[in-house]
Amino acid sequence: MKRKTTALATVCAVLLGSGAAMAQSAGEYTLGVGFGNVNPKSNNGTLAGGATTIDDNTQLTLTAEYFIRDNLGIELLAATPFKHNITIAGVGTATTKHLPPTLSLQYHFANGKNITPFVGAGINYTTFFDEKTTLGNLKIEDSFGLAVNVGLDFKISDRGAIRANVRWMDIDSDVKLGGTKIGTTHIDPVVAGLSYVHRF
């Protein structure tokens, strides 16, 4: 929780200090490509009586945002599959892959400067697959949850920008081994992203 709060507070402080921002007009859209690091929180719950930890992973990310009003857009986040190692204390290890498509409503703070802050909130759907373990037939259930996003666009051309952003996603999933529930994992990651965004 401390890590998540610190990351969000840092970006928010930059947002508040950068003034009012560059306009995005209704009917425009942007496409972005970059990388995102999914970093689960430190305490991921208990599975089969053992404390669970999940490591981080970095993958290619893609975004598409359509502006329904000036400065107000709907963004879809997609990515190549993230892969995580799972350690269950005193029980064993496993790996899984997941895809976290996220739909957000985002507001971009318009000003005449080359730095445009934005904030957003929406829904995350995370689907898990390709679970592997020597413990037996492991299944991690899919998850729906809240997602929030804050970031900055650094203008590098009339239509291009470098984007730095931080997301938080509420991801809680029931876990089954051999068809029997062995607990719920609380992933709730901070996702740090860096990408190039082009406006059309």
UniProtKB/TrEMBL annotation:
Please tell me whether the keyword Ribonucleoprotein is annotated for this protein. no
GO cellular component terms attached to this protein's record:
outer membrane
Q: Where is the signal peptide?
A: 1-23
Matching entries from Gene3D superfamilies are given as: 2.40.160.20
Question: In Gene Ontology terms, what is a biological process of this protein?
Answer: transmembrane transport
- Show the InterPro entries listed in the entry: OMP/PagP_B-barrel, OMPW
* Keyword Iron attached: no
Q: Which Pfam families match?
A: OmpW
Keywords, in A-Z order: Signal
PANTHER family per UniProt: OUTER MEMBRANE PROTEIN W, PTHR36920
* Family membership: Belongs to the OmpW/AlkL family.
Q: What is this protein called?
A: OmpW family protein
Q: Which organism is it from?
A: Sediminimonas qiaohouensis
Question: Upper lineage ranks?
Answer: Bacteria, Pseudomonadati, Pseudomonadota, Alphaproteobacteria, Rhodobacterales
